[in-house]
indole-3-glycerol-phosphate synthase (Corynebacterium appendicis CIP 107643), 290 residues
Amino acid sequence: MDSAEADTLIGMTAVQGKQQLVTDATLNPVVAGVLADVGEREAQIPFKEIKARSRSMPETRDVRAALLGPGCGVIVEIKRTSPVFGPTGVIDSMAHLAAEIEAGGAALIACQTERLRFDGSLNDMDEARNATSLPMVCRDVIVDPYQIHEARCYGADMVPLQVGLLEQARLESLLDRVESLGMVAMAEVRTVEEADRALRAGASVIGVNSWTFDTNDLNREAFGEIEPGLPESVLRISLGGVRNARDLISAASTGADAVLAGEAVMTSANVTAATRRLVAAGQHPACPSR
């Protein structure tokens, strides 16, 4: 099937697919909210147009090179609020915040673009990316092909796919689509079973999220439970629960190539200094390099 035929098939099945997702999402208001937002944006810019725009974007930044630097890399997550910790404080400028994080030595920046729980937007990511040379992660609940092309249009270099929310065929399809645009797909998992599904789908970057999706409980054992089953070729990212340098070193010593830290930086009075402390911890002898 060529690209044109694939797009025709997408157009014919998009409504049916969204309806099925909405049906499945009746037990998950977050997914339902995300789909409602996507529907509104797609009504303004049709899929065919957003796809064409995404294909004309400049080349992506090298996520893998950033993650394969010495020691344990630091991905700083920027967000306006969170369902666990509440508002992170007043953000006057996403551009200024991104520049401060880059000055602290972070490997990547992850921007929360989900509106419902994080009060985020794609414009936030676009503003942050334009102010830095670091690769950008679009932190959102990605369940539809439209979102992938949209993320590329706003400067995403890596896109997470929530394995627990996607049936296998859709997971594989979305993963292929992410990588066809030159971005890196990070399969986001919370259980051993989800990690196995991610590997079957062909994921080469796996992020282990210590926060449960529905209840926002923290499972500090998640990474240690899942990491032993991952092949050496897979890049491992620990998502959540990194509050300080000790947490980072603990994650790295159990196999994390990088960690994602949010509140540890976002709630600091000095973003650059807080980032620098974590980056320095990532060079500790207990943090092996690839």
Remarks:
- The longest helix spans residues 3-24.
- Strands lie at 73-78, 108-112, 136-139, 158-162, 184-189, 205-209, 235-239, 258-261.
- The domain at 3-283 is CATH 3.20.20.70 (TIM Barrel).
- The mean pLDDT is 87.
